Amino acid sequence: MTLGGDLPDIRPHDCVYATRGWGIHDERWVAALLEVGRSPFVVAWNPDETDALEFREQVAQAAQGGLPVLAGPLDTVAPVLLGLGLPLVGLSWGYDLTNADARGDDLSWIGALSGVIVDSVWNQDIVVRAGMDPARVTYLPWGVDLQTFVFHGPWIDAFELGVPPQSSVVLAQSVVARHAARAAGVLSFNDAFLVGAAVVLLGAIPAVFLRDVTQSGSAAGNEAHALE
What we know:
By secondary structure, the protein is α/β, with parallel strands linked by helices. It has helices spanning 24-35, 52-62, 95-103, 121-129, 176-183, 189-202, 222-227, and strands spanning 2-3, 15-20, 40-45, 69-71, 88-91, 115-118, 137-139. The termini are far apart.
């Protein structure tokens, strides 16, 4: 793996990974590419230092010879790289598509991509509705790290969190967007997804309890929204 900058000889690399900044999602994508035997050349865009045109030029230079470009998020990076004449695969960060869809953004440009990789059936539906050929959509959910989430680890009595005995429990990590949605009094994508998953897994929801393990206090009142 080579990080973009002065762009050294890129011949050993077989693809270009284009992103904005650098974070945990980038670490996961690049690690996954390395794991399957790819050698990505990373071009990280900082809009405060580089404009979109210069970013496009950096990616084009790194992809000399027609290397495929994997670009994400889809709401910031991928659209900037359209029209380079290179194989361009969009990488969804999850929130990029759900937020764009919630805002009612025009996503018809997605159909111009060579392909899209999404992490949920929800986002798969969004890109197909936007005009992407389903055959060019790859559904690649992130797996569970069984070295971290072991079967026999710490436990807690769900009754202490207000969950009735004998209830089936679906546990998920809370995120900032979820807090914002709850604060606004609406059901966030994460909550809606969990409720939908419960319907599929349990067949029915006699009662829904949305509890925030971070104790932010913003979850109150959402049981009614969930049941609706």
